[in-house]
Design a protein that fits this description.
Keywords: Signal, Transport. This protein is 43% helix and 13% strand. With 461 residues, it is α/β, with parallel strands linked by helices. Helix 2 links the parallel strand 1 and strand 2. 48% of the residues are buried.
């Protein structure tokens, strides 16, 4: 068992490395952000600016850009990458300044506002003219990008679900097997075998486990389950897998809901159980979880035994130093099924681009089997094209990642599409502080009921 002193040292090392990395990334991204679309190069070459937020995916898409440029010698692709938070801040500012990138990676929570403000192009006519077979994409992904007007505002590029990542070395010491984790189930009464697992994996500074007499929840060395923040109104890698497997749904319909369900007893009781893991010492307090070190770094440093995270981080987590890290699917809930958000990304074309035809050609290439098979070879994400998605499973398996932990949701139909609304930013101004307050024990789970009334009032405005 890792000692408290060792875990603390490894945590400090990870935090220092994270700080240094952030400083370096901030510099390079700042320089990248100075570039802009060149509308008319002297030699007639068109340069398209393409924005991404995931640095891990840049190599795969750079290869797609190289292939595209070889087939389109009059077009150059300039890839710029920003970190997640900075990405949306910069993109919003560029939209206001009418200098947004020609093409950018879009998120299902964000595209609604861009579509409603006519800031991105409806590509429906271009898709039809190109004869693109929308059936080639995983079921449900195309619908994430349909506007309230019926238009199509992007083509799917990938999909994701979440899984239970764990420290396999700690697991071996605990007596659990990887097969055991596939059989875990949970409920809101006693937490089921899942809570038994996180209790056993929690260890205090004296080496006492969470399911043993004398466990000191005030001095925990290893938390059985980690997290990064409260999750606000989304909870994709926090509470959503549990709520969704408890029969809860985000809203009355999706996309474009007219009412949300944050007041549903199924969610209220789920959150009550979820935060009880904090009170029992099996999860860190919200203050500790948001204190500065990332959840993946904490997992790598031995401070967390397990962590719910997205498939998009499978490779980076598997490459964490210091231990062997594996992944299992989310536990089966009271509904009798597992739960996860099923999300995807697309590539959107800025409505103000001076090169809409070239931008469309690039988006068409990005959404093609050729590019997505290139991306699949990188083993970073599951591409949206079914053929490429199958290849990604093979790639992940070769890298030692159990990709079935993610694809089982697609195979069994237990994935819930990410909610799509043009009011997501405003919704989060209500739900983020509400969920923060609940998980920090300032208010009770029942505070979700009045919060939901405010959300629904927002939709009526």
């Amino acid at each position: 068992m890792t000692t408290a002193k060792t875990a603390t040292a490894r945590t400090a090392t990870a935090k220092a490395a994270t700080t240094a990395l952030a400083a370096g990334v901030g510099l390079s991204l700042g320089l990248a952000g100075c570039a802009a679309t060149d509308p008319a190069a002297p030699d007639g070459t068109v340069t398209l600016t393409y924005w991404m937020w995931d640095a891990n995916q840049v190599p795969g898409y750079q290869q797609c850009a190289n292939d595209f440029e070889a087939a389109n010698p009059g077009v150059r692709i300039n890839i710029e990458q920003y970190g997640w938070d900075d990405y949306w801040t910069q993109l919003t500012a560029r939209m206001v300044a009418e200098s947004a990138p020609d093409v950018f990676v879009d998120h299902s929570q964000q595209f609604g506002k861009f579509a409603e403000l006519d800031q991105i192009l409806d590509v429906s006519d271009r898709v039809a003219a190109s004869g693109i077979d929308l059936a080639q994409y995983e079921d449900g992904l195309v619908d994430l990008w349909r506007g309230q007007d019926g238009g199509l505002y992007g083509l799917p590029k990938d999909w994701d679900t979440v899984g239970l990542y764990y420290n396999a070395d700690m697991l071996a010491e605990s007596g659990y097997t990887s097969e055991d984790l596939w059989e875990l189930e949970w409920n809101t009464t006693d937490g089921g075998t899942f809570e038994e697992f996180v209790a056993h994996m929690s260890v205090d500074s004296n080496g006492v486990r969470g399911d043993e007499p004398g466990f000191d929840k005030e001095n925990v060395e290893v938390y059985g389950l980690g997290y990064n923040e409260s999750g606000g109104g989304y909870g994709q890698v926090q509470w959503a897998p549990f709520a969704l497997s408890n029969g809860w749904t985000y809203s009355d319909r999706n996309p474009w809901p007219t009412a949300f369900n944050y007041d549903d007893p199924a969610l209220v009781e789920t959150i009550g159980w979820y935060r009880s893991l904090i009170d029992k010492g099996y999860m860190p307090s919200l203050a500790v979880a948001t204190s500065g070190i990332g959840s993946q770094e904490a997992l790598g440093a031995g401070a967390y035994a397990s962590l719910i995270e997205g498939s998009w981080n499978a490779r980076s987590i598997s490459e964490l130093a210091g231990a062997d890290f594996q992944v299992a699917p989310t536990p089966v809930g009271p509904s009798g099924e597992r739960g996860t958000v099923f999300n995807g990304l697309s590539d959107a074309i800025y409505a103000g681009t001076p090169h809409p035809d070239e931008a469309w050609a690039w988006v068409e290439h990005l959404a093609s089997p050729g590019c997505q098979l290139e991306v699949a070879q990188e083993g970073r994400v599951f591409p949206a094209v079914k053929e490429a998605s199958d290849q990604a499973v093979k790639t992940f398996t070769e890298l030692g990642v159990d990709a079935e932990a993610f694809s089982v949701h697609v195979a069994e139909g237990t994935a819930t599409p990410s909610p799509v609304t043009d009011r997501w930013a405003q919704l989060q101004t209500i739900m983020q502080p509400t969920m923060d307050s609940v998980l920090s024990f300032q208010t009770g789970p029942e505070s979700l009921v009045p919060a939901n009334r405010r959300v629904d009032e927002l939709l009526d405005e």
